[in-house]
Design brief:
Structural class of chain B: alpha/beta
Helix content of chain A: 25-40%
Radius of gyration of chain A: 24 Å
Number of helices of chain B: 15
Number of strands of chain A: 18
Bound molecules: NADP nicotinamide-adenine-dinucleotide phosphate
Largest sheet of chain A: 9 strands, mixed
Strand order of the largest sheet of chain B: 8-12-13-7-14-15-16-17
Shape of chain B: globular
Strand content of chain A: 25-35%
Oligomer: heterodimer
Distance between the termini of chain B: 48 Å
Strand content of chain B: 15-25%
Chain lengths: 386, 507
């Protein structure tokens, strides 16, 4: 949908400044040429700024698709920063294009946002945030979609974070989940006062968390849940880090530990590819948590396959798992020999664009997520020390 | 004749004489603005321009230079040949050395000839676009040569436009006012402040006093605080020598920012005529709480930029700029907390910041209204809700935005800020007049509302003198450089607001 209007401000050799005034004029002209807006049936809307950090290797078609989906829900000013950090030559280029919704709904005008793409390479990557800042539309929120592993020492990341109200990451791309999660916890801690954080991978866990929480909704189950002493999480090991626990599995246990006030004991057992942590509940009860890599399934890298919660004392078992086709989630609860009726809910694969759009509709702090990340960092820290 | 005809204000015939006609301002702003006035038929056919400076130039050469300047610096980047032809006919050059009396005789002869040829009726605007050190001398020479007054027995008028800066401190501004008052009446003096020529600044008056809805809210009962940001991305651009002696308080705050401030703070004038408006402005500025050394230390922040990046480009720090001392203590950024000790504003802080090499070029006023009395909706629902804000953007993109809370469509009640936006350019689909165009036209029309009056220039200096003195006395303590180019200034400015439970807006 995004057709480029003008190639602007292309620097030849030395990195040059982006001419912000000119880009704004080009944008304004593009709206005027879209024909007195009235006749052409286009309405320019900007409900938020979306800064997208992308690397050069990334697929542009994929990004355009993502922006189409986002625009359909949230017409925005997208500020796309394409960075080529490895390049030796410092370069900075910018161009603008409208971002329009697929078609108008019921004869109404088409709603359009706009896109400014900044391509930065070499040394210009570090200074690119200063090119982007003046293009941010004031008075509407600023989201940063950082499609990479966030590093607290990265100058560009920090500048963009300072500019933003909310940073959205996807911890599914973490290639060292243990270290990266701790890093993330530090970043959230440092910028906590002003920064809100979102994680697409946390969004993928929403159905899981819903189903797990619904066990606690049943009064009859409570005594069993309060006696939990065994947790098993099976996950599809991430290709990038086959020997580490997947980020999503960490988030799930981080969430449970934070909400149920489980503390680390420092005990860690490795058995083959599995890892076993021993946590402790307030009243001294020990909980064995086992992370077990499941068989590798195409397209499910790093995702959780099953979660089983058990009590030895009362012989109860609560289960949530994904089906063979990875399209449904099933639950069951078993107390002694009596099997309760299970539940099946759909578990549709959503595109990155859809997930991102969901995050863009949220403006308040996700305290639960932040607690989960902090709790994982604490667990990992204690385990590393022991 | 004009009754009932829808015509804009039309000007009387006149000649505009520019002292400093070979300079930068003339080609960048003045001549392009005058050309537009002719093009838009806002000045009559009986109109002429005389360029004056020491350089030897023929009128032909001057015309060629000015045509080039219009192409280079006008918004349109071109000239309309027909308009140019008629414009050029009225364009002359006369060699004048400001200090040489004989040159004024020749100038007077030329002006008289033009009166005869073009019917300009002895009306004159003298525009002093030269170094400030020459203002007093030029006015004296005009006075002594008889050019400062209409000729005996003739009707005509004479007005003098004086560029900035007007003095470098209170004493020099007072001395300059004294000197020029020896030869000119206050009504003949037009001290330029190009910020006042901005459409939004003018609209501030209309907005406040013609709109019934805002005026009742415009006071301490409803307003929590006011933020005024005046940010430039440029550095000293080769004028390091000048800037070293000036600094941002002299260069920007004391004049431009205070003008804008006074329009926000003033009481409603009895009428919108120039004297009533200027009376109210000075009244407001008179109630500004004086700065004491304690207040300066606690409520003001000075800054100087270090190296950083602007618009994606690496830029050097102030001390590395040409003409700047490597240990310079000149401030390139200042933030002041100001209070008006009057009924309307008692206890309402006005936070004012101005600086070079900041993240974005923008001048705006943000009026922050107080929180809704009871927060009916819990914090979960109030997603990112800030109290209502009114933002008046002066540049770029002049316009007014009201930020209010609204319910987000959907099943659950969620409240999110929305903006009601009004941009002049977009709303009226027209190009806004450059500030200089408006100001030149006002002077030709004899309307000094948007020019600074004697008392206002002196009051501006009076307010900032304690700051300039305190900062000069504590030069060695200045923690410079203390902000990176491309940011929003020293951390201390953010801390200051934070301590008060407030936060600077991102403009
Ligand atoms: N440039 C801007 O954007 C800008 C912005 C705001 C305010 N201003 C103010 O505008 C004024 C002019 O600025 P500018 O940048 O145009 O300065 P400029 O480029 O240095 O020009 C100075 C002019 O004064 C003339 N001049 C110098 N000595 C003279 C003398 N003894 N007699 C007659 N003419 C003399 C020069 O011409 P000759 O050498 O041929 O005599 C030249 O035309 C200054 O007061 C400045 O503070 C300028």
């Amino acid at each position: 949908m995004s057709s480029e209007i003008q190639q602007g401000t292309a620097a030849k050799n030395a990195p040059q400044a982006i001419d912000v005034g000119r880009l704004e004029k080009e944008l304004a002209a593009s709206w005027q040429s879209a024909g007195g807006a009235e006749e052409s049936g286009v309405t320019r809307v900007c409900v938020l700024n979306l800064i997208i950090y992308a690397t050069r290797e990334e697929d542009r078609a994929q990004r355009d698709e993502l922006l189409d989906v986002v625009t359909a829900h949230t017409p925005a000013r997208a500020l796309v920063l394409v960075a080529d950090r490895e390049a030796t030559e410092a370069k900075l280029e910018a161009y603008v294009s409208p971002l329009c919704q697929e078609e108008s709904r019921g004869g109404a005008k088409r709603v359009c946002g706009e896109q400014v793409t900044i391509e930065a390479s070499g040394a210009s990557v570090e200074t690119a945030a200063s090119a982007l800042e003046p293009l941010v539309v004031p008075d509407v929120p600023v989201f940063l979609w950082w499609k990479d592993i966030p590093h607290g020492e990265d100058k560009l990341f920090n500048r963009l974070v300072e500019l933003s109200d909310r940073v959205v990451i996807d911890s599914l791309v973490f290639d060292q989940p243990h270290e990266d999660m701790q890093q993330l916890a530090r970043i959230i801690g440092t910028h906590r006062q002003y920064l809100l954080a979102s994680d697409l991978n946390w969004g993928r866990l929403t159905s899981w968390r819903n189903l797990v929480a619904s066990f606690w909704d049943v009064a009859d189950y409570r005594p069993h849940l309060d006696a939990l002493d065994d947790v098993l999480i099976e996950y599809d090991p991430p290709d990038a880090a086959p020997d580490e626990i997947a980020a999503q599995a960490l988030l799930l246990i981080g969430w449970m530990a934070a909400e149920l006030k489980w503390q680390p004991t420092g005990e860690l057992v490795r058995e083959g590819k599995s890892a076993r942590w021993v946590l402790q509940a307030g009243e001294g009860r020990k909980i064995n948590v086992e992370f077990r890599p499941a068989e590798d399934r195409h397209g499910c890298d790093g995702l959780i396959a099953t979660l089983t919660l058990k009590t030895a004392a009362t012989d109860a078992e609560f289960y949530v798992g994904v089906n063979e086709e990875w399209t449904k989630l099933e639950t069951s609860a078993k107390i002694g020999d009596a099997r309760s009726v299970g539940r099946v809910v759909s578990y549709e694969a959503k595109s990155e664009g859809e997930r991102l759009s969901r995050e863009l509709s949220m403006l308040s702090r996700d305290e639960v997520y932040e607690r989960a990340v902090a709790s994982i960092a604490r667990l990992l820290e204690v385990l590393q020390k022991s | 004749m004009r009754a009932g005809v829808r015509l804009e204000r039309t000007a009387e015939p006149c000649v505009v004489v520019i002292f400093g006609a070979t300079g930068d301002l003339t080609k960048r702003k003045l001549v392009p603005a005058l050309y537009r006035l002719v093009q838009e038929r806002l000045v009559p056919a009986e109109f002429a321009i005389v360029g004056a400076a020491r350089t030897e130039l023929s009128s032909e050469e001057f015309r060629a230079n000015m045509k080039e300047a219009i192409v280079q610096f006008s918004e349109a980047k071109s000239v309309d040949e027909e308009v140019w032809e008629s414009f050029a006919q009225g364009l002359h050059y006369q060699k004048v050395d400001i200090g040489t009396s004989e040159d004024y005789v020749k100038l007077a002869e030329l002006l008289e000839r033009i009166d005869g040829e073009r019917g300009t009726q002895g009306n004159r605007v003298f525009y002093l676009s030269t170094a400030p050190s020459l203002y007093a001398e030029a006015v004296k020479q005009l006075g002594q040569s008889g050019l400062a007054k209409p000729k005996e027995g003739q009707k005509g008028w004479v007005r003098v436009i004086i560029e900035k800066p007007f003095g470098t401190d209170l004493a020099s501004a007072q001395a300059l006012n004294r000197d020029i008052h020896q030869h000119l009446d206050e009504s003949q003096i037009y001290r330029i402040d190009h910020y006042l020529g901005k459409e939004t600044v003018q609209n501030l008056l209309v907005f406040r006093f013609a709109n019934g809805i805002y005026e009742p809210l415009w006071n301490r009962q409803y307003i929590d605080h006011v933020q005024i940001t005046n940010a430039e991305t440029v550095g000293v651009e080769g004028r390091g020598g000048y800037y070293e002696k000036a600094g941002v308080v002299r260069d920007m705050l004391q004049n431009h920012v205070f003008q804008v401030l006074s329009l926000v703070a003033m009481e409603p004038p009895a009428s919108l005529n120039s004297e009533s408006v200027r009376d109210e402005k000075i009244k407001a500025m008179t109630s500004v709480r004086p700065f004491t050394p304690e207040r300066i230390r606690a409520e003001c922040v000075r800054g100087q930029y270090g190296a950083g990046s602007i618009n994606g480009k690496q830029v050097p720090g102030y001390r590395e700029e040409e003409g700047v001392a490597p240990d310079s203590a000149t401030e390139t950024f200042a933030m002041l907390t100001m209070y008006f000790d009057n009924w309307r504003w008692s206890g309402v802080p006005f936070y004012i910041r101005s600086g070079k090499r900041l993240a974005k070029r923008v001048t705006e006023i943000a009026i922050q209204f107080k929180d809704a009395p009871h927060k009916l909706f819990g914090s979960e629902m109030m997603e990112q809700m800030t109290p209502n804000q009114l933002i008046i953007r002066v540049q770029p993109d002049e316009g007014i935005t009201m930020r209010v809370a609204a319910k987000v469509p959907g099943q659950v009640t969620r409240i999110r800020d929305v903006n009601m936006d009004f941009r002049y350019g977009a709303s009226f689909g027209m190009q806004l007049a450059e500030a200089y165009e408006r100001l030149l036209l006002d002077c030709i029309l004899g309307d000094p509302t948007l020019y600074a009056r004697t008392d206002m220039t002196e009051r501006g200096w009076e307010i900032v003198m304690p700051i300039l003195e305190e900062w000069a006395a504590t030069k060695s303590e200045a923690p410079f450089p203390n902000y990176e180019a491309g940011t929003w200034g020293p951390q201390a400015t953010h801390d200051l607001l934070e301590q008060a439970g407030r936060r600077w807006r991102r403009p």
